[in-house]
Amino acid sequence: MVTKEEVKKIATLAKLKYSDKELEKFSDQFQKIINYFDTLAKVDTKGVKPTYQSNDLNNIFRDDIPIVSQEREALLKNAPTVKNNLIEVPAIIEE
Amino acid sequence: MDFNSLTDLHQALKNKEISAQEVVKQTFAEIKEKEPKIAAFISLNEESSLKYAGEIDEKGDFSNFLTGIPIAIKDNIITNGITTTAASKILENFVPIYDATVVKKLKNAGAIVTGKSNMDEFAMGSSTETSAFKITKNAWDQTKVPGGSSGGSAAAVASRQVLGSLGTDTGGSIRQPAAFNGVVGLKPTYGAVSRWGVIAFASSLDQVGPITTNVEDNAHLLNAIAGHDEKDATSAKESYFSDYLEDLNKGVKNLKIGIIKDYLTEGVMPEVAESVKNAATILEKAGAKIEEVSLPNIKYAVPTYYIIASSEASTNLQRYDGIRYGYRTPNYHNLEELYVNTRTEGFGEEVKRRIMLGTFSLSTGFYEAYFKKAAQIRTLITNDFKRVFANYDLLIGPTTPTPAFGIGSKNDDPLQMYANDILTIPVNLAGLPAMSLPNGFVDGLPIGLQIIGKRFDEKTIYRLAKFYEDETKFYQQKPEIAR
Q1: Is A44 an interface residue toward B (CB < 8 Å)?
Q2: CA pair distance B38, B50, nearest whole angstrom
Q3: Fewest CB within a 10 Å sphere: which of A33, A59, B70, B358?
Q4: CA distance B209 to B192
């Protein structure tokens, strides 16, 4: 059973927020989906290797040579706010 | 549109019966006429399409199959200078500064990007209803969903606004809308098509693939986009690729085909199951060897997929934080509030639900029981396929349990919506290629035959599909809006 408090904690980890009213409906749906996930518990997977990717590639290496991928000016065009040619963010140290 | 296929259009361009500019003008006239009913596009690219077509006409070289041909691109595929939103408010004003590899390849082949097609937000959905911007309608019946998540790409082709498009398929997102709209959609082998510049949903499952009105066009379009790309570390080596048209006209004699019996039972409409059996009869008469096969672990595919895909999504979508690009909330007093409010206001309900499910499945104390368990069952499902493919060339089954459902009919029950993906998900988990091919109609709505191949054996899928298409000619039936 996933409690409303636990759902709130998961939301904090995911950097999301649900209002108390939204939480009512969401927790119920969430619980139902987790119950559905729980049907997998009965499957015997003892000694089975997990699959994280379906191709047989291993690590791909290349030489560590710096290249220009994009120009700064172009990259900054999509930033919400820019100041002195830098991305502007709120102060992270509270006064 | 005066043309029924990319092949027809290419011939007409090559024979100078029509110019690229005329093709583009005709395409946008079609779009303007049909969009009020279908709503397949999030944005259009008319002005530069016309300009580019003019340049193509001036050169006058139409030897390349795709030169001068309009193609729609799903809006989670990055296009230089054209707003790319993934149908999310969080990317509403995002204008990419480069092209995805698949877009670059299409452009190099002379194709014209006419617009960006609607989809479920971040490709999370099976009906295109989770788009932040509009609800796309099924080309055959505008009260029905077009399927999803590549609903715009499939409906645009089915309504003949364009004759080819790109979609992406993480758990059925090309095949299911192709089936619902009566067009041909292929999900290539994982690693066959570059994911560089494709907005990530679940990186171990996502693949880009073509949607067209017929099989030959589809193979042409795959020829243009497949291949090794050093920018995508999961891209297959060059030696895996060959001409997808090579075996197109070889027929089905002596092909060993397994009909998946687990795909014909639970929750599958009897008429849909019947249509697959009819297909088997046609193939058998033509000399294919057909036998029933079983994939016993398929029944666990839906929860397995939703754990894995949601976990990967929760990681991939961490990047949307309101700092470097995309939406930033005006409501904040400190950095934490900026993150939380940006994401809470920017993401839609379904995307947030998946992020929550993924965060839960990966979190301390739950990882072993959910994410790791699902990854182990993924191995069992993959092994099921390996076992049957030791004895068969192809597998067949339906693409979806039912034809298209009504708009709004499954919105309130996520589990019911997820269950709809049961027949398409297993292929993504195993990394195999699979196609949905038109296979007749139930209650006036199209349904699809799913053809599953061995890894990197798209050629044999096309071979069966071309034969079956020639036999049945379902592609000749068009929705009213395209007549």
Answers
A1: no
A2: 23
A3: A59
A4: 10
> What's the whole-number mean pLDDT along residues B339-360?
98
**Choice among B5, B19, B149, B275 that is catalytic:** B149
From the list B5, B19, B173, B235, the catalytic residue is B173
Q: Say yes or no for a CB contact (<8 Å) between B191 and A60.
A: no
Chain A residues touching residue B303 (CB < 8 angstroms): 36-37, 39-40
pTM of the entire predicted model: 0.97
* B326-358 exposure pattern, b = at least 16 Cβ within 10 A, e = fewer: bbbbeebeebeebbbbbbbbbbbebbbbbbbbb
pLDDT digits (tens, 9 = 90+) for B256-274: 999 999 999 878 999 999 9
Question: Does residue B131 have an active-site annotation?
Answer: no
Residue-number span of the structural domain to which A10 is assigned: 4-42
CATH for B6-249 (3.40.50.2300, 3.80.10.10, 3.90.1300.10, 3.90.180.10): 3.90.1300.10
- As a whole number of angstroms, the distance between CA B429 and CA B467 comes to 28
Residue B371: both structure tokens together? 């994410």
Reported ipTM: the value is 0.95
How far CA B449 is from CA of B180, B435, B436, in Å, comes to 11, 8, 5
**Residue A20 placed within a domain:** yes
- Tell me the chain A residues in contact with residue B418 when contact means C-beta distances shorter than 8 Å: 33
Shortest CA distance from B204: residue in chain A: A53
